[in-house]
Amino acid sequence: MRVAVVKERRAFERRVAASPDTVKRIVGMGLDVVVESGAGEGAWFGDAAFAEAGASIAADEATALADADVWLKVQRPLIGGESGADELALVKRGAALIGLLQPAQNPADAEAYARAGVAAFAMELVPRITRAQAMDALSSQANLAGYKAVVDAAAEFGRAFPMMMTAAGTIKAARLLVMGAGVAGLQAIATGRRLGAIVSATDVRAAAKEQVESLGATFITVDEAASRSAETAEGYAREMGEDYQRRQRERITEALKRTDIVICTALIPGRKAPILLTSAMVAELAPGSVIVDLAVEAGGNVEVSRPEEIVLTPNRVKIVGPANMPSRIAADASQLYARNLLAFLGLLVDKDKGLKIDTADEIIKATLLTENGAVVNPLFSAPIAAEAAASN
To answer: In terms of domains, do 157 and 305 share one?
Structure first.
């Protein structure tokens, strides 16, 4: 069985779907690996390192994908001449495509995968169960994004993070507010604390309170009763009603008057990101304050944030809108994501080193979008996909 890894061609993407370490392990499973030349450059993995690990190096994408049985990707492929390319046309029918395919945001893509005859697996849909923890790509990437958000905020902030007592006087510790205490938010809290900031956090889920406080941060509660119903069965935040959002804005507005840095991380799977900070709320921050909006690609948690821009507000607050934050720490992000794929690939290889799609396995069933020319995932059937597209 042949496994292909190619260069990522979407904007702002530096990651790669394999590392020399995972290539060595895949080869050890009895599979052939072919890597497109230059695929790992953005993550500082050279062709020589992949070759030493046992991969064949292909001169271009078409050569790498020729006769590939499994196609490992970071981002969804370019389809139908998008950006002047059609990557999906390069892979043979019956091949398996595995990557962060964003099916909820791009429901029409599932039909394209079905037409191409590929078995498409979306890593976003890996269920949050114990057996699947090593395959949880959303968590591995969000963890790094939360860390990098605080580091970037520190670089933009014109003051120090920790309290410093010097002969010339005392410097007050910076105050950091994290909005959304999921994987990214919890890592942002931990990183802010390591840097010496006074950290507080808020989340709609009641279960987040204990996690936030265990990291030494203060939890800002809006409505404990409402928060108990704010978590889905999968562990994600549920979109709250307008009354809750109004009370949340009032509570956070008061906190912003004592805040220097805000990290926004709130996402709702398959939906536009909720607005957590309006322009009026941003106006409560002191000049020189910094906001990092990790949800900017999903519409943004901040009313005036813009992807890949630093917006300077009239009251001189910097709003940083990084596109694809994990890609900014590409080497580590690629290492972790490649291990997620390696663990997932283990479910697809049978004892004869062939491709096995066992839908009796709950992980396979949850992640499989298309097979044998049809959309097989009930979440992305035609009526539901059309509804999702309309809501986005």
So the answer is: yes
Cβ 279 vs Cβ 303: under 8 Å? yes
Contact 253/281 with Cβ under 8 angstroms? yes
Q: What are phi and psi of 310, to 5 degrees?
A: -110, 110
Model pTM score: 0.90
| Catalytic-residue membership of 136 | yes
Task: Tell me if residue 128 is catalytic.
Answer: yes
Annotated catalytic residue 140: no
333 and 200 together in one domain: no
Q: Are 199 and 218 in contact (CB under 8 A)?
A: yes
Final residue belonging to a domain, choices 263, 290, 323: 323
SS3 370: strand
Is 147 an active-site residue?
A: no
CA distances from 12 to 139, 308, 322, 339 (A): 20, 9, 10, 22
Q: Own/partner pairs for 364-368, CB < 8 Å, 24+ apart?
A: 364/121, 366/125, 366/126, 366/127, 367/121, 367/122, 367/123, 367/125, 367/126, 368/119, 368/120, 368/121
Other C-beta atoms closer than 10 Å to the C-beta of 224 total 9
Q: Which two tokens stand for residue 132?
A: 């699947």
- pLDDT tens figures, 215-265: 999 999 876 655 555 555 555 555 666 777 788 888 899 999 999 999 999
Please tell me whether residues 188 and 51 are part of one structural domain.
no
Kindly name the residue from 69, 136, 203, 293 that is annotated as catalytic. 136
Q: Please tell me whether residues 7 and 116 are part of one structural domain.
A: yes
